[in-house]
Amino acid sequence: MNLKTFLLGACSAVALCGFANAETLTIATVNNGDMIRMQGLTSEFTKANPDIQVEWVTLEENVLRERVTTDIAASGGQYDIVTIGNYEVPIWAKQQWLLPLDGLGEAYDIDDLLPAIRGGLSVDGKLYAAPFYGESAMIMYRKDLFEKAGLTMPDSPTWEFIGEAARKITDRNADISGICLRGKAGWGENMAFVSALTNSFGGRWFDENWAPQFDQPEWKESLQFYADLMKDAGPSGASSNGFNENLTLFQQGKCGMWIDATVAASFVSNPKDSTVADKVGFALFPSKEGVANHGNWLWSWNLAIPASSQKAEAAQKFIAWATSKEYTDLVASKEGWANVPPGTRTSLYNNEEYKKAAAFAVPTLAAMDAADITKPTIKPVPYTGGQFVAIPEFQALGTTVGQLFSAVIAGQSSVDDALTAAQATATRDMTRAGYIK
């Protein structure tokens, strides 16, 4: 063997050895567009960190929540990084299911995180998850259909206006539904929307003594409004539609309006994916006439490290990369400023390039500023959370109630029957959990 062959063989062996010794991070995430984009850019991270490899487990939202919750509660150790919401973070941190993020590095600008988002991810002053993107909810609508119908969208519309407009712009012959709203069962699917809707009608999940409130007129009014609107102006099969399904319908030009997470704005405005990209307008989440509450939806998808992970140092390196200002710059260089993850950093909303490229930047920040999860309703409540209730029991209870309400949209149950069943279920569960004495 000559020297050249020997050296090439040695180099190959070292390279293979280095790859074999690389730590592999298993990351569980949701199949939303921003996360899919992050996976496509992961090679930039591994290029800079050749001692770390990444394996992705990408799941539909409800499935992700079920699998991650099961694994983390049992200390299964299946995942090194999990994608969870600001609902789970403080609850799981207090149960010591998550590791604090105290190794993000000196270059990580933690003070640049939006205060409301950072506060929801911190316990006793320690950050337990880093926000990948943040959101509130707002109206996305077809300006061309509104103009055709002689309608003008107010900056801060009422539900009464939305109902009238949705019915007016519905065109069944052209396969255009006036409005698309979540109907798929799940505490983070249809109940995210329905909870925010009911908050904006003046309703609440529980009173000051944790008594369920589904037997109160605000729930009856809000759920009846939702059911009637979906019947009159919603798409067929709406009980199976969540965020991604409605996103596709809107991008295909089949929805006149869509009320959902502000993060969707970049996708409905992207001409590569949306057939109506140049026709989209934005407005604040509606309130009921006479009720000064815009739903108080405030959410973030975050990266966190289960306490069962044995690769905390490598995991923090990845999280620091994926939630940094530098990652935002990377996405902007590859996809344009309009497609960067929104809603987490003050610097983004001070960036003139972003505001110029993203027509939805100012409406998104306005929607987030309008949300106050410490006061989700106009009536006093013993909990925090806008489109969710920040107690451990909500995950199971919210999904059960979501199934009851999804059946209404599917035409399998009446509003009154669903509310009666929700009241009974919630009363039973809250009594068993010790909230109701």
Short description:
By secondary structure, the chain is α+β, with helices and mostly antiparallel strands.
Overview of the molecule:
The protein is α+β, with helices and mostly antiparallel strands and 437 residues long. The protein has 2 domains: 3-134 and 299-357, D-Maltodextrin-Binding Protein, domain 2, CATH 3.40.190.10; 137-297 and 369-432, 3-Layer(aba) Sandwich (D-Maltodextrin-Binding Protein, domain 2), CATH 3.40.190.10. The protein is built from 19 helices and 10 strands. It has helices spanning 3-20, 33-40, 42-48, 61-73, 88-94, 115-120, 143-148, 159-169, 190-200, 217-233, 243-251, 265-268, 312-322, 325-335, 346-349, 352-357, 361-370, 394-409, 415-432; strands at 23-30, 52-59, 81-85, 122-123, 126-127, 130-135, 137-142, 257-261, 280-284, 299-304. The strands form 3 sheets. The chain has a 5-stranded mixed sheet. It has a 3-stranded antiparallel sheet with strand order 8-7-9. A two-stranded antiparallel sheet has the order 4-5. A hairpin with a 2-residue loop joins strand 4 and strand 5. The radius of gyration is 23 Å and the shape is globular.
